[in-house]
Specification:
The chain is α+β, with helices and mostly antiparallel strands. 25% of the residues lie in helices and 33% in strands. It contains 16 helices and 39 strands. The protein starts with 5 loop residues before the first strand and ends with a strand. InterPro entries: ATP-grasp, BC-like_N, Biotin_carboxylase_complex, Biotin_carboxylation_dom, Biotin_COase_C, Biotin_lipoyl, CPAse_ATP-bd, PreATP-grasp_dom_sf.
């Protein structure tokens, strides 16, 4: 008997869209919820009904249990799908849904509570003979934690006991680093999960991050659907996922799958879930945590198995048994996913905000996203904007498809990691299948492999766009003018001057510095025209089409391959203020976000490496150091303030 015909999705963005479409394919009505900021979002428009659940701050609305339950009553929804993030692994939410007489699409609340606490989860699975990482839990005293770390042996990892996703995780190589990491880890864990409880684990640095997808029903059927390799990470958060793993031969896959099934049977698991393991160089694996929800990278498993995990989540929640057995699960070919994020890899993967000026999805592969032109990227949510998923007969085919996808689509108006992703999957270590979780820690992002500089075509396209070409009713320049490039790897502005030539071409003269004199490189654009929003240029006989978008009259974005460049008019390019007259250092916000804490006051003396404040954006906390020894002269912010990228935080007088 059907338990529900109307499903409320307690989430937003691409995951809400994914669930809505799966529910619709099963003939279910769907209900979206939204904050003020999301009133016109795609997930709201695609659902059959939508209910407003809150105003500001927007991210808090999706964690408001009472508002979501009221939305079920208003809409007639009899079931709730939590998606991932927000309340998806909140046992109290699952319990509240059940107590309201509704169906929670996921495991029972007591299972979520057990697996949601890393300390209790490790203890439970150790009893089920599941290998776990050596560590310690249930200790709140800092001195005892230090003693246990020395006994385990450095390096060690601190982790939030109540959650995952990289929040609250800190690596420590000695006692001093551990003492510094403890308050930061507790603060981030408390902010993300409502609990500052930590666990301690031995850090296995040269490891592969391997996770096993499981699917279980209420009738005792427990299956594993193979592994995903999620080793390419930054800040302990995944960027590239693939299946099968280059490091997992068939025999090891079966061993890990058997352990995952045994763990699920031991805890009475129901629904879709993931067990995460570390695989060391010797081939031994250790349980880290279990995600009692759908994973961001679930589509990778769907592509290699042909099993729609969201549909099966909904069928299991209806009480249906799985209609296939373990031996029926077949994996074909290779699948890979790239997480496209609003972040700047060249600056330590700092989150970025902005307005999407132009979004063109790549063709020929699966793209899970809620992106659209005009969408505002805020600091309130996770930085992930889209997922590019490719399937191929071979791993090499996937890499080729995804490389082309990074180059073939377009995302203008906010900086993203598309260039980085294209470079990452074509790095020799990745191509050889040898990437471990510490891969990026050993990379110099300023090196030739990772660095990107704008091509002559990109420079010329931006110069033409900012000069007003084409004028209405003609093809000539509106005027000659100066522009400045904002995204040069050495941090110096590149100034450009345009002049028209007798044959109709345009000469773009380039030089560095703040003066309009001196010799510099010249780019001659022999022909140009607009085509469906793109700019087609012929430079030195080479014809190329580039995507261009304007943010007002003084800012141009140009997509050149996998890189997006931001150009400004020279008149808007401000002089540097952070070292005026060599006497003071002006600290500016490296990202938009909220000030979590301010650790100094006007008049305090500080050292160069001393933390002076902490910012939070897109679920990431960043400690800001003074940068130079001196005295705090002008404190411009307080705890709780929202700041924008580049905003002055304080001045340190040297």
């Amino acid at each position: 008997m059907m338990r529900f015909d109307t499903l409320l999705v307690a989430n937003r963005g691409e995951i809400a869209l994914r669930v809505i479409r799966a529910a619709r394919s099963l003939g279910l009505r769907t209900v979206a919820v939204y904050s003020d900021a999301d009133a016109e979002s795609r997930h709201v428009r695609e659902a059959d009904l939508a209910v407003h659940i809150g105003a500001s701050p927007a991210h808090a609305s999706y964690r408001n249990v009472e508002a979501i339950l009221r939305a079920c009553g208003q809409s007639g929804a009899q079931a709730v799908h939590p998606g991932y993030g927000f309340l998806s692994e909140n046992a109290e939410f699952a319990r509240a849904v059940a107590e309201a007489g509704l169906t929670f699409v996921g495991p029972p609340a007591e299972v979520i509570a057990l697996m949601g606490n890393k300390a209790r989860a490790k203890e439970a699975l150790q009893r089920a003979d599941v290998p776990t990482v050596p560590g310690a839990q249930g200790i709140s005293d800092d001195r005892e934690l230090s003693a246990r770390a020395r006994a385990i042996g450095y390096p060690v990892l601190l982790k939030a006991a109540a959650g995952g996703g990289g929040r609250g995780m800190r690596l420590a190589h000695d006692d001093a680093a551990l003492a510094q990491a403890l308050p930061l880890a507790r603060s981030e864990a408390l902010g993300a999960f409502g609990s500052d409880e930590l666990i301690l684990e031995k850090a296995i640095l040269a490891a592969r991050h391997i996770e096993i997808q499981v699917l279980c029903d209420e009738h005792g059927n427990v299956l594993h659907l193979g592994e995903r390799d999620c080793s390419l990470q930054r800040r302990y958060q995944k960027l590239v996922e693939e299946s099968p793993s280059p490091a997992v031969p068939p025999a090891l896959r079966e061993r890990m799958g058997a352990v995952a099934r045994r763990a699920c049977q031991a805890i009475g698991y129901v629904g879709a879930g993931t067990l995460e393991f570390l695989l060391d160089e010797a081939g031994d694996f250790y349980f880290m945590e279990m995600n009692t929800r759908l994973q961001v990278e679930h589509g990778v498993t769907e592509l290699v198995t042909g099993i729609d995990l969201v549909q099966w989540q909904l069928r299991v929640a209806q009480g249906q048994p799985l209609d296939f057995r373990q031996e029926d699960v077949q994996r074909r070919g290779h699948a890979m996913e790239l997480r496209v994020c609003a972040e700047d890899p060249a600056s330590g993967f700092v989150p970025q905000v902005g307005s999407v000026l132009r979004w063109v999805p790549p063709s020929g592969l699966r793209v899970d996203t809620a992106l659209e032109d005009g969408l505002e990227i805020t600091p309130h949510y996770d930085s992930m904007l889209a997922k590019y998923l490719a399937w191929g007969e071979t791993r090499e085919e996937c890499i080729r498809k995804l490389t082309r996808a990074c180059e073939g689509g377009s995302l203008l108006g906010v900086r993203s990691n598309l260039h980085f992703l294209a470079k990452a999957i074509n790095h020799p270590d990745f191509l050889g299948g040898g990437v471990t979780t510490n891969f990026l820690a050993g990379q110099d992002m300023a090196s030739g492999h990772w660095r990107a500089e704008p091509s002559e075509h990109a420079v010329a396209a931006a110069a033409l766009a900012l000069a007003g070409w084409p004028v209405a009713g003609g093809s000539g320049l509106a005027a000659a003018g100066d522009v400045a490039l904002d995204d040069v790897s050495d941090g110096k502005p590149r100034l450009l001057r345009l002049s028209r030539e007798a044959d109709g071409g345009v000469l773009v003269r380039a030089w560095e510095g703040h003066v309009a004199e001196g010799d510099g490189a010249q780019i001659r654009v022999g022909a140009m025209h607009r085509r469906e929003g793109d700019m087609v240029l012929v430079v030195d006989g080479l014809r190329r089409s580039l995507r261009v978008a304007m943010a007002g009259a003084d800012e141009a974005w140009v997509q050149d391959g996998a890189s997006a460049w931001r150009f400004l008019r020279a008149t808007r390019f401000a002089a540097r203020e952070d070292q005026q007259a060599g006497q003071a250092r002006l600290l500016r916000a490296p990202m938009s976000g909220r000030v979590i804490s301010v650790d100094v006051q006007d008049g305090d003396s500080v050292t160069a490496q001393q933390t002076v404040l902490v910012l939070e954006s897109m679920k990431m906390e960043m400690s800001i150091a003074a940068g130079a020894a001196g005295v705090v002269a002008k404190l411009a912010v307080a705890a709780g303030d929202q700041v924008s990228t580049g905003q002055a935080l304080m001045e340190v007088q040297q």
